[in-house]
């Protein structure tokens, strides 16, 4: 996307999102911008808001989880402010009226920290099992990666599924980065955190769940 460019994205009808959906949770990632920039996402057909949803430094990769209202036609618009940038938008879930899982939020609870106990970091292409311990269908977490030995990314997904071809968190050598995630769980209330490359420690703080 170029400077000032706006791209319209159809959401309803993608990945099983029904016409009843009124909002969507997106993992938005900006990749290798040519200058410092920011991205803004809003309902299609409405005025551009004066906010940023994601700020990305030049030549960096940065994700953020956002919740955005959908237009009546089930679309959103994405705008790049400056320079050239690649943009990824991964659907994490949707919201619609009526019966369904309800969200409960609370003060953050530390679920997992690989620095504790044996203190072993995640290895490359390794899935780390995180148990919530409640019969929930999805969780809201704050996922932190720290002390990566090389450039890598982390993915969070249900323990009953295969690893998806997306990233929730991108890290450079030696960085510590945190990001919000919404992740489905299996029947036991568990999910995986997968490390792509090198070694890295991960920290998972629970901020809410859907049940």
Features:
52% strand; 211 residues; mainly beta; globular; four-stranded antiparallel sheet; 15 strands
Could you characterize what this model shows?
This protein has 211 residues and is mainly beta. Helices cover 0% and strands 52% of the residues. It contains no helices and 15 strands. It has a four-stranded antiparallel beta sheet, with no helix packed on it. It is globular, with a radius of gyration of 17 Å. The model has no long low-confidence stretch (mean pLDDT 95).
What's the count of strands?
15
Q: Rg, please? A: 17 Å
Shape type: globular
The end-to-end distance, rounded to whole angstroms, is: 38 Å
Helix and strand composition category? mainly beta
What level of helicity do the residues show?
A: under 10%
- Integer average pLDDT: 95
- Order of helices and strands, N to C? EEEEEEEEEEEEEEE
Strand order within the widest beta sheet: 1-6-3-4
Q: Give the low-pLDDT segments.
A: none
β-sheet strand percentage: over 45%
Q: Helix count, per DSSP?
A: 0
Helix and strand topology:
Layout: E1 6-10, E2 23-31, E3 37-43, E4 54-56, E5 61-69, E6 75-80, E7 86-95, E8 103-113, E9 126-131, E10 138-146, E11 152-158, E12 169-171, E13 176-184, E14 190-195, E15 201-210
Antiparallel strand pairs: 1-6, 2-5, 2-7, 3-4, 3-6, 8-15, 9-14, 10-13, 10-15, 11-12, 11-14
Summarize the structure.
This protein is mostly beta strands and 211 residues long. The protein has strands at 6-10, 23-31, 37-43, 54-56, 61-69, 75-80, 86-95, 103-113, 126-131, 138-146, 152-158, 169-171, 176-184, 190-195, 201-210. The chain has a four-stranded antiparallel β-sheet, with no helix packed on it.
């Amino acid at each position: 996307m170029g400077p000032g460019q706006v791209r319209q994205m159809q959401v309803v009808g993608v990945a099983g999102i029904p016409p009843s959906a009124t909002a969507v949770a997106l993992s938005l990632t900006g990749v290798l911008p040519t200058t410092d920039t920011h991205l803004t996402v809003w309902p299609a057909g409405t005025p551009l808001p004066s906010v940023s949803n994601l700020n990305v430094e030049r030549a960096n990769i940065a994700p953020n989880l956002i919740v955005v209202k959908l237009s009546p036609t089930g679309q959103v618009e994405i705008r790049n402010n400056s320079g050239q940038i690649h943009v990824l938008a991964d659907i994490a879930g949707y919201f619609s009226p009526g019966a369904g899982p309800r969200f409960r939020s609370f003060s953050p609870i530390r679920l997992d920290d690989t620095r504790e106990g044996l203190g072993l970091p995640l290895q490359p292409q390794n899935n780390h099992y995180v148990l919530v311990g409640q019969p929930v269908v999805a969780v809201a977490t704050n996922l932190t990666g720290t002390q990566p030995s090389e450039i890598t990314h982390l993915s969070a997904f249900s323990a009953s599924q295969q690893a998806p071809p997306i990233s929730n968190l991108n890290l450079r050598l030696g960085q510590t980065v945190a990001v919000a995630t919404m992740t489905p769980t299996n029947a036991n209330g568990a999910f995986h955190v997968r490390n792509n490359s090198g070694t890295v420690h991960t920290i998972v703080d629970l901020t809410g769940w859907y049940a």
